[in-house]
Design brief:
This protein has 218 residues and is mainly beta. It has three domains: 2-90; 96-155, Type Iii Antifreeze Protein Isoform Hplc 12, CATH 3.90.1210.10; 164-216, SH3 type barrels. Helix content is 8%, strand content 45%. The strands form four sheets. The protein has a five-stranded mixed β-barrel. A hairpin with a 2-residue loop joins β5 and β6 (82-89). It is elongated, with a radius of gyration of 27 Å.
């Protein structure tokens, strides 16, 4: 499958128009800002076959291209809608991300105080976490300014394991309740388990609030 984005030419030099087309293509395909895409090297030296006023550059890439480092692209040049040239280029691409970093040191298990940093994606070790999706708990000891990635942090759960909850078992039109203890961390609206304190039975259900787990009886 091919990803295709048509980018109208700008009133600039040939190399600048090609670079703008490549940035526009990557921005649209990845749904990122053009400010987060940088062409380090075009990997091409060519002259357009169309005039700047009538030129449109169509950029193509194989589906699944990650647009990091050396990237193979195909460029079709159209002059007033008619194809006048096709080229294969291998630009070197850098992508920038604004991601979460630790605002202060954090020990494992602690909630991380967050700030943000803008870096090139390839310079990061691990998958960066978005500051908008926190808060996060540290998995390892973190220094101030250290990047928050999937190997160093996890989302803070809505309710921690060991929390006292009310377990409601529903069967038909009847419901039975017992006091219980949540087994493992859980998020509201997601599957969870709790142990009924009076019977020791482990019940599977959905955490409907910070203090209630609803299970369906057989």
């Amino acid at each position: 499958m091919i990803a295709i984005v048509a980018v109208a030419a700008a009133a600039a030099g040939t190399a600048e128009r090609l670079q703008a087309a490549v940035v526009g293509h990557i921005s649209q395909v990845l749904s990122v800002s053009e400010q987060d895409v940088e062409v380090l090297h075009l990997g091409a030296s060519w002259e357009s076959c169309a005039s700047p006023d009538s030129e449109t550059l169509r950029v193509e890439a194989k589906d699944g291209e990650d647009y990091l480092g050396p990237t193979e692209l195909r460029v079709t040049v159209l002059d007033d809608g008619e194809i006048c040239g096709r080229y294969r280029i291998k630009p070197r691409i850098a992508r920038w991300v604004t991601h979460a970093v630790a605002a202060q040191p954090a020990a494992p298990g602690e909630v991380i105080a967050l700030t943000t940093k803008r870096e090139r994606l390839e310079s990061l070790s691990g998958t960066p976490l978005s500051p908008e999706e926190g808060p996060y708990l540290a998995l390892t000891a973190l220094r101030a300014g250290e990047s928050i990635t999937t190997t160093r942090a996890r989302s803070q759960p809505d309710v921690s394991g060991g929390t006292q909850v009310q377990v409601e078992v529903r069967s038909g039109g009847l419901s039975v309740r017992c006091d219980g203890v949540l087994i493992g961390d859980a998020d509201i609206g997601q599957p969870a388990r709790a142990r009924c304190s009076s019977t020791g039975q482990v019940l599977h259900g959905t955490l409907t609030s910070a203090s209630t787990l609803v299970a369906l009886g057989g």
